[in-house]
Design a protein that fits this description.
Elements (H helix, E strand, L loop, with lengths): L1 H26 L20 E13 L3 E15 L3 E14 L2 E18 L2 E12 L4 E17 L3 E17 L10 E18 L4 E11 L9 E11 L4 E12 L9 E12 L1
Antiparallel strand pairs: 1-2, 1-12, 2-3, 3-4, 4-5, 5-6, 6-7, 7-8, 8-9, 9-10, 10-11, 11-12
Amino acid sequence: MKSTTTRNLLRRRAFLFTLFLLFVALSLQAQMLFSENMTMKIDSSKPIQGTFSAMVNFKTEHEELFEVKTFSNLNILIGSKRVINLMGRFEFTTYGSKVTVNEGDLHAEFRYQLQPSFEVYPYVEAQWAGTRGLIRKVSTGVQARYRPINTEHSLMFLTTALFYEAEDWKNLSGDTLSPPYGYNRNIRLHLSTSYRHRLSDKWEITATAIHQANPRYYFSRARFGGALDLKFHLSKVVGLRGTYRFIYDTSPVVPMRKMLIFTNAYLDIAF
């Protein structure tokens, strides 16, 4: 009885925490998330499981440099076939009194396993990246994920989704002939494939390829993405992870680079 009460209390707290994060994200002001790269294998013996990563950097240069990056991935198991999955990222950098980086995102999904290798889930995402022009973005839709490979060392996902997105952009290009702000309200089809391979007891690699477009403009106004993660497990709890991401948007909302590249290194703590 005591164990059941404790488990219910933990789930209640996790649910409240989920609502809080959703509220924060939807009230804030990266254009594509790579949630497939962070999808975890679910341990049915743990009602709550996940990872947390953080990096803080402070330097005294000509001006004081302060940098913080955090990433969290939380799974809440409901019964044997349902999972609430939360992923959040936050990056903030200042140089003196100037904010040079201010961006983050939140991804929340409710996963329902129809079969051992097939699941569907509604999801919602919120993003902001003010220092590169993305004031806010909110998207929501339904995804279906199929696992054609699921072995001890290899895992593969094939994913499709239909979603609606709303983006508000600020033109930072300096092009006075273009409007100062841009807006996008669109329905897109998402296709992706992810492959994860455990190279050894310590090393793990994950790769993802993504295509997103409105069905009417499937190639002419498409958005492409790719991701590569390399992780080294120091122990069952602690790991080091390097990430590479790129986004190529064939038709940006405001004048900007079509190709964006992101690289990061994290210390992961699993629970």
